[in-house]
Specification:
The chain contains 16 helices and no strands. The chain is mainly α. The chain has one domain.
Length: 470
């Protein structure tokens, strides 16, 4: 049984979670701006940007998830006050980011034949492939930026990340105006111009974050440690991160598959699906931020050899995630037509969206619980169980239910969405059981080096709420 959280626990968790939420929303807003700008060119360019984004993020999700190994490694080292382990974790993260970016970038090159093989519209494919090719050079910059962001987040140094994100959105909007429409002497490139602007913006983000955070990062990058290139610790870091990458990719794949299946029921069904999933994704940023904060703070408690504090963080995070998603569920159930009307004035599309938004309200609660549970487990270094649970629940429960209700029972896109509910409910239930079991015992720091330092009581900070305070 997890302990009841106190008001101080809530305040401390939210103090770290809220900046993370702002960063997540900032990343999402860059995509929203891209869509709005390209949408003012033509329907073909907008479709190309959407298809290109689907291909690009379908690839990079795996790399992004794999690099989340930084969360337990650096946060546990920070909790243990192990400066050498923090340095090794960050430096190996940079090495892995550069290594992983090579295959991810190369897999962008065959975008056109792959999209043709998937029987996408012939007039859209060349433009979508151009979008992917323009996005490819930005992969290394984005992966290295993510390592720095995760490292700073694990050390509760969020100010440089927040400043960078605000500036990145301004730069992204300006570069879209230049390259999409062809201003300041640049050619009008449409969707490909949006991707070019994003690539340039990612290098600006990396340079800015590195510059703003150098005071915090200098002790961990100078000197560069030769053991950061050792194969065995890199492979052990991959063993922690790859299950996260697989889990995120499978979850993204499940949602992408439902989006493609929704298109089989017509344009209005597809558009209504996009509206409902977009609104659900926006509200999802809050529990996702709570999940990241939970991973950091649970990691700190594990590093400090304080299992009771880890349990307090877990109960606080689950309560926060549930409460917020419960409130958003009420709004989705109460005013679905109003929400749909904000997105579109097309009656048919609004009707579909208004039907799906209440279903999104139902799965919101399960979605919030499952993502927070994943963060808690990541904090203790448990990354394989969420991957296995994801496969079982999304692909062996949720997807069959979607297909059965949507096609066999003629439920259409509504039937597909009730499969979301079944899959997410199963994921949440299984992950909560896993959290309960893991929180019962004691914890050890993740083993990356041959002889990791597992602090005893004499090496740990005094147990107490100060571990939670950024």
């Amino acid at each position: 049984m997890l302990p009841l959280p106190s008001l101080q626990d809530f305040r401390a968790l939210l103090k770290l979670a809220l900046p993370i939420v702002v960063v997540q929303v900032g990343l999402m807003m860059m995509g929203v701006v891209d869509t709005i700008v390209v949408g003012h060119v033509s329907a073909t360019e907008l479709a190309a940007a959407a298809l290109g984004n689907l291909y690009y993020f379908g690839l990079t999700m795996f790399g992004m998830g794999t690099l989340m190994a930084i969360d337990p490694i650096v946060s546990q080292a920070f909790g243990a006050r192990d400066e050498a382990a923090i340095a090794r974790g960050l430096q190996r993260g940079i090495v892995l980011a550069l290594i992983i970016s090579v295959p991810m970038t190369l897999l962008c090159l065959p975008a056109e034949p792959i999209l043709r093989l998937l029987r996408q519209p012939s007039e859209v494919v060349p433009r979508a492939a151009g979008f992917v090719l323009m996005s490819a050079p930005g992969v290394p910059a984005f992966f290295v930026w993510m390592v720095l962001r995760l490292g700073l987040q694990s050390m509760k140094r969020m100010r440089p990340v927040l400043v960078t994100m605000v500036a990145a959105n301004l730069i992204n909007g300006f570069l879209n105006w230049v390259f999409v429409f062809g201003n300041l002497g640049a050619p009008a490139m449409g969707a490909a111009g949006s991707a070019l602007g994003s690539t340039i913006g990612r290098y600006c983000m990396l340079a800015m974050l590195f510059g703003l955070s150098w005071g915090d990062l200098r002790p961990y990058f100078r000197p560069w440690r030769p053991d950061s290139f050792q194969l065995a610790p890199l492979l052990r870091t991959l063993a922690i991160g790859m299950p996260i990458g697989v889990q995120i990719s499978l979850e993204f794949g499940a949602f992408a598959a439902i989006a493609l299946l929704a298109g089989w029921f017509g344009a209005e069904a597809m558009a209504g699906h996009q509206i409902a999933i977009n609104f659900a994704s926006l509200t999802f940023m809050v529990p996702m931020g709570v999940s990241s904060a939970a991973a950091v703070l649970v990691g700190h408690a594990v590093g400090a050899n304080d299992p009771h504090h880890a349990r307090r963080v877990a109960s606080t995070a689950l309560a926060c995630g549930f409460a917020f998603m419960f409130l958003t569920a009420i709004s989705m159930l109460a005013v679905p037509r109003f929400i749909a009307g904000v997105y579109t004035s097309a009656p048919g599309v609004a009707a579909v969206a208004a039907t799906l938004i209440p279903i999104a309200g139902v799965f919101q609660v399960f979605d919030g619980l499952q993502v927070v549970a994943i963060g808690i487990l990541r904090g203790v270094g448990d990354t394989r169980a969420p991957m296995i649970i994801n496969v079982l629940a999304f692909w062996l429960i949720g997807m069959p239910v979607s297909l059965w209700l949507g096609f066999r029972m003629h439920g259409g896109v509504i039937g597909l969405w009730w499969g979301f509910v079944a899959g997410l409910a199963a994921v949440a239930a299984l992950l909560l059981l896993r959290v309960r079991n893991r929180m019962r015992g004691t914890f050890e720091r993740v083993k990356v080096d041959h002889a990791p330092v597992v602090p005893g009581p004499e090496a740990a900070p005094e147990p107490g709420p100060e571990l939670l305070v950024p």
